[in-house]
Amino acid sequence: MFKNITDRLIKNCLLPVSLSIVLSGCASFGKGVAEAFLEKSDAEDTRLCYVRGNSFAGIEPGLAKPQGKTKVLMVHGVGDRLPGYSTEFLGKLVDELKLTAKSSTYKDIQLMSFSDPEKRLGNLRVSRLQNEDSSRELWFYELTWSEITRAQKALLAFDNSGEYSFRRAEVNDMLKKFSNDTGPDPIIYLGESRDLILRAFAQAFCWMNKDSWGEIPGDGWHGCDFTKGLSDNINQDELVFISHSLGSRITIDGITRMVNFLEHPEKKSTLRTINKMKREALQKKHVQIFMLSNQLPMLQLGRKLPELTGHQADYCNINGSKYSSRMFAKTSIVAFSDPNDLLSYAIPHNFTEKYLDSRLCINVTNIDINIAKVFDAFGLGKIANPMEAHLGYSRDDRVAALIAKGIGNGNTAPIVKEKCQWTEMTD
Fold first, then answer.
1. Which of 364, 257, 359, 363 is nearest to 315 (CA)?
2. Hey, is 195 helix, strand or coil?
3. Are strands 70-75 and 238-244 parallel, antiparallel or unpaired?
4. Which residues make Cβ contacts (< 8 Å) with residue 166, sequence separation at least 6?
5. Do 293 and 384 sit in the same domain of this protein?
6. What DSSP string runs through 133-188?
7. Are 17 and 130 contained in the same domain?
8. Which of 161, 249, 269, 271 is an S-S bond match for 261, by CB 3.0 to 4.6 Å?
9. DSSP state of 369
10. Statement to judge: residues 154 and 38 lie in one domain
11. Contact 288, 242 (CB under 8 A)
């Protein structure tokens, strides 16, 4: 659908030029030029990929470890999603990681709150993928929280009906339906549903910390019991998060919520076991968060600051006065944004220190990347489809390669070396 919109826009831009050529008696020439332009646009890939910040390893190094497992949690953003939304992206990721030899039947957990079973929290789909000799293994967790907001968004269903939509121009109707699907989610997240969505994230994190495949139920409604603590292998397992748009805010808020409970176990008795047995293991971990179509700056507007900000040196430097109270040894945020996406942003300088919890020990790498192609319509202006710029990450080979193998290291994928420019930012 989005490609069709782009094609219409291109042709509309070309129409005045083509018409003037036709009127001057050069119709065949005009047709040839227009066709050549469209063929050239399809053939050449001139999209930018500009990386600024620290090098990062990606997922692959964790797969090479002789002990522990690599576990990846994906959290979707705005818009209604159904389980399986990550299938295309996961396919590209495992191709890049060469994990296509063996795959278990996925498991579908209908999430519910362990402490309040009446609360339905969405779906967690878990897949296990391996290479041919089973020496490399990835557990992929796909969180779908749309069920929490779906009923509230139904309030706008009348606007998508024929009673109203038939009066709109075709392209405008597509844009309005997109707006009705995506626009309400950040607003709903500011209300009572925020707690349920963060509980869904906590449940997903809890299921990530199971030691064996058999401990994860195949289907049905289940709540994960935090009183049993984190995985015995938490010190060996690699934890990676991939998020999209609003999902990045959910991921950061979900982790920060757990940090607060660990810091103050009296607020959440179910986390006392984690606080006692596994805190030290967590504090040694390096966690990677890949944020697609990053929206953290916009979604910070109007929000209260976290419990602890502006003290990163105290918590993250080995000689810092609060070093023993950190959550992780390091949290690497890799923020992807397309300049032509109207809804995504790079993470600005000092944002981490001012707006994100100091106990996470965050460093940031920004990636400015054209997801949508940019077209030059014969000097009439450059255009790119903003919806493709926001939603097209799952189809981009460069994105999958960057997440799989990082940049600035010996494992960097050839497509990244060829297509992406890296500028290392030093303190």
1. 359
2. helix
3. parallel
4. none
5. yes
6. TS-SEEEEEEEE-HHHHHHHHGGGHHHHSHHHHTTS-HHHHHHHHHHHHHTHHHHH
7. no
8. 271
9. E
10. no
11. no
Residue-number span of the structural domain to which 24 is assigned: 1-44
> Is the domain of 61 the same as that of 154?
yes
Question: Residue holding tokens 């003037």?
Answer: 20
**CA-atom Rg of the chain in angstroms:** 23
Helix, strand, or coil here: 248? helix
Query: What is the pLDDT tens value at each position of the chain, 427 positions in all?
Result: 444 544 544 444 444 444 343 344 444 434 444 454 444 455 567 889 999 999 999 999 999 888 888 999 999 998 889 999 999 999 999 999 999 877 788 999 999 987 787 888 999 999 999 988 888 999 999 999 999 998 888 887 777 677 777 777 777 777 777 777 778 888 888 888 999 999 999 999 999 988 889 999 999 999 888 766 666 677 788 999 999 999 999 999 999 988 877 666 555 555 555 555 567 888 888 999 999 999 999 999 888 888 889 999 999 999 999 998 888 999 999 999 999 998 889 999 889 999 999 999 999 999 999 999 988 766 678 888 888 999 999 999 999 999 999 999 989 999 999 999 999 887 6
The structure's pTM equals 0.85
| Number of separate domains in the chain | 2
Residues 19 and 90 occupy one common structural domain: no
Q: How far apart are CA 426 and CA 204, in angstroms?
A: 35
Among residues 397, 401, 345, 384, the alpha carbon closest in space to that of 368 is found at 345
Q: Are residues 176 and 39 in the same domain?
A: no
CA distances from 312 to 181, 207, 368 (A): 38, 29, 26
Whether 82 and 6 share a structural domain: no
Place of tokens 């607060």: 260
Query: Cα dihedral sign for 100, 102, 105, 110?
Result: negative
Query: What tokens does 176 get?
Result: 């309005």
Question: How far is Cα 393 from Cα 391, in angstroms, rounded to an integer?
Answer: 6
32 and 56 belong to one structural domain: no
